[in-house]
Amino acid sequence: MPLTRCLIEIGCGVDLHGSDSTKAARRAVADAFARNNVSFYTLAKMFHADLATLQVEATIGVPDPDTIDYDAVMADLPSGKAILRIEHGGLRVPDDLGPDATVVASAVLVVRLDIPV
């Protein structure tokens, strides 16, 4: 049965002084989860769905997608059916005094469940 989108959350993460896209991406995921006021258990109960069918799809936008530690970001997502896509986006703000930069990442989390008809 196809999964139904039940929840979408958006988050932002920043690495101020390290030019670290992974750190910014992980903070964006944490920010998106923190904005969610509904537990996954409550969400499944609300839709009369089996929590085992839960899928979280995360899309992260960062300036340098190739520098992301994919496994580190995946570790921040619920185990089971997690999907992670890293795309070009976010912001990179150079430091005027050196090679350092501030990296801003954005995250969109889509939660899907198999909802019985």
Please give a quick description of this structure.
The protein has helices spanning 21-34, 40-46, 70-74, and strands at residues 4-15, 55-62, 81-88, 91-94, 101-113. It is α+β, with helices and mostly antiparallel strands and 117 residues long. The chain has one domain (4-113): 60s Ribosomal Protein L30, Chain: A.
Structure commentary:
With 117 residues, the protein is α+β, with helices and mostly antiparallel strands. The protein has one domain: 60s Ribosomal Protein L30, Chain: A (2-Layer Sandwich), CATH 3.30.1330. The chain is 22% helix and 38% strand. Strands 1, 2, 3, 4 and 5 form a five-stranded mixed sheet that branches. It starts with a strand and ends with a strand.
The share of residues in helices is 10-25%
Tally of helical segments:
3
- Most strands sheet: 5 strands, mixed
Strand content: 35-45%
- The total beta strand count reads 5
Shape: elongated
Number of domains: 1
* Oligomerization category of the chains in this entry: single chain
Distance between the termini: 10 Å
What would CATH call the architecture? 2-Layer Sandwich
Q: Residue ranges: pLDDT <50 for 5 or more in a row? A: none
Question: Structural class from helices and strands?
Answer: alpha+beta
